[in-house]
Amino acid sequence: MFINPFKKIKHSKLDVVEVKNLTFYYSGSSRPALENVNFGLAGGSVLLLVGVSGCGKTTLLRSIVGLVPKFYAGKYEGSVLLNGKNINEMDMPEISQYVGYLFQNPDNQLFSYTVERDLAFGLENLGVEKSEAIKRIDEIIQLLSLDGIRKKPIYELSDGQKQVVALAGILVLRPKLLVLDEPTSLLDPRTALSIINIVKMLKDKFGISAIIVEHRLELALEISDYIMVMAGGSVKMFDSTRQALRNRLQDYGVAVPPVISVQRELMCDPLELTVKDFVGRLHAR
Amino acid sequence: MIEVNDIYFSYDDYQVLNGISFKVKTGEVLAVVGSNGSGKTTLLKHLNGILKPKRGSVKVFGMDTGSVKISELSRRVGLVMQNSDHQLFASSVTDEISFALRNFGFSKIEIDSHVREVLDEFGLYEFRNRPPLSLSGGEKKRLCIATVMAWQPEIVMLDEPTVGQDAVNKKNLRKIINRLSQDGKTVIISTHDLEFLWPINPRTIVISHGKVLTDGSLRSISLNGTVFASANLIAPQLAALASGIGLNEPPADEAQAVEMIKQWQKA
Ligand SMILES: Nc1ncnc2c1ncn2[C@@H]1O[C@H](COP(=O)(O)OP(=O)(O)OP(=O)(O)O)[C@@H](O)[C@H]1O
Ligand SMILES: Nc1ncnc2c1ncn2[C@@H]1O[C@H](COP(=O)(O)OP(=O)(O)OP(=O)(O)O)[C@@H](O)[C@H]1O
Ligand SMILES: [Mg+2]
Ligand SMILES: [Mg+2]
């Protein structure tokens, strides 16, 4: 079932992201990595972006943060607006003050010698005053429980630790929009959940929006307002989370978590998004 | 096949492994799970001799890793690294796969057929001429697995193999793991993705504070809330569902879970 995303989200200049008729071919490629992509995201909402490996998720995120077309050559048509402004009229520093982008591979965004230095790096670049920078770094180290590795050289971290540090490097800049490419892919389940809950807190408390690519849906369902499904470079579905879970996501190679398939089989309505809530409902009957 | 005997390891003065022992039999599938930084990757690197224990010993095929050449071991113990970018270096997908095969002295005919086989098996044929570093995250991971599988090591170690993999690829990977085991290969998987492991139900060791906290089939250990909590794990959904309604036998799959709930509602 294809649902026109424009019917679901009220469009206005205030949309944090608006993608219009976006098509992109990597240079040398005869197949579009993105094909006529259209969607918008209103402030304060979380969008879960799913689809099979190679369907264009990372390419879409790169377009939202301007890396496509600024750093990736290719054939580009259409437009991306951040807070109403076309990214082609923005330079990278302006974009990165507005959007925090977590790369799929944390190694691609950690450059400093130690964890602490890495967190300071972005703040210095933005010209944040030293005392303010220290305050923010302490805050983020608290929030993400990085105290134990604060002084550690980056190259000595485990891969999961690197992923949390990369996220810290983004949050410390206080962006309005988070663009997270598989933010929990290297994290143990509890750490993954705590990261997801931090995104929720940022949304509830500060109205921050997020676009999250995630293959392990069970982690992110609870905090997402919408699910967007891509296949072969185009958007196949855009729906509220609960509605999307009733659709045939498996046709697009996306697995719903076990607790959702069990409820679908048992014809439960409405769907509970977590095991805890489902168990609660079973006991209430 | 593998004997890990009370090993200790530290990076300089940072203690990571604190007396770990276990044995793995030929054809066994072993999952290693535990929190970030608990030492899973460090442990895997001991099994192919990249790292040597400071105390204790690791024996693979009856040989002590301290006294055997790494080159000899790496042919028989294949490691798919956690970070694909650390593994990939060739200028095309085909070269990436054939490089090790050439090194290990496979014939031209063997190389061509093994390369073709894994390209198909991992859905990489259409990318065969592309530079590996231009692939998507999930495609790179599949290439790394394919590269190691191509030379058919007797022990296959997969460090976080499901990163960036969609449902279809995960299913394919489970099939491959089961087949390897049936063919008498030994498979060791380090992962945070317990939902991926659930249908395989492998023997699982939980690592915490440099020690083995527990050792048993995934289904049998997943009802032990205390162990899971102290290793930063969360019980897989079907286990949580079973314990949520007071059953101590978790269902093997969703169909069983549905039956189980229907029974429970009747009772
Ligand atoms: N080269 C190194 N020098 C110093 N410390 C290191 C080095 N490599 C890893 N460590 C530390 O050793 C511990 C174990 O690291 P390891 O990579 O084995 O963990 P892991 O269980 O694989 O973690 P993850 O789940 O994040 O991949 C971590 O605390 C890490 O910071
Ligand atoms: N630099 C590049 N040059 C050429 N093709 C590319 C490049 N980067 C990506 N592609 C191709 O474009 C398609 C979309 O890639 P993208 O990285 O957006 O996928 P994805 O949905 O993020 O996949 P994954 O889940 O595996 O990370 C893939 O087929 C990929 O091989
Ligand atoms: Mg990607
Ligand atoms: Mg690791």
Q: In CATH terms, what is the architecture of the largest domain in chain A?
A: 3-Layer(aba) Sandwich
What's the CATH C level of the largest domain in chain A? Alpha Beta
Hetero compounds: adenosine-5'-triphosphate, magnesium ion
Give the distance, in angstroms, between the N- and C-terminal Cα atoms of chain A: 33 Å
Strand proportion of chain A, as a percent range, falls in 15-25%
Task: Give the number of DSSP strands of chain A.
Answer: 10
- What structural category arises from helix and sheet content of chain A? alpha/beta
What's the helical proportion of residues of chain A? 25-40%
Category by helix and strand content of chain B: alpha/beta
Q: Using only CA atoms, what is the Rg of chain B? A: 20 Å
Mean pLDDT of chain A: 91
Task: Explain the overall architecture.
The complex is a heterodimer of chains A (285) and B (267). Chain A is built from twelve helices and ten strands. With 285 residues, chain A is an alpha/beta fold. Chain A is globular. With 267 residues, chain B is α/β, with parallel strands linked by helices. Chain B contains twelve helices and ten strands. The longest helix of chain B is centred in the middle third of the chain and has 16 residues, at 167-182. The model of chain B has no long low-confidence stretch (mean pLDDT 95). Chains A and B meet through helix 7, helix 8, helix 11 and helix 12 of A and helix 6, helix 7, helix 11 and helix 12 of B. One adenosine-5'-triphosphate (ATP) sits between chains B (11, 14, 16, 34, 36-42, 82) and A (156-161, 186).
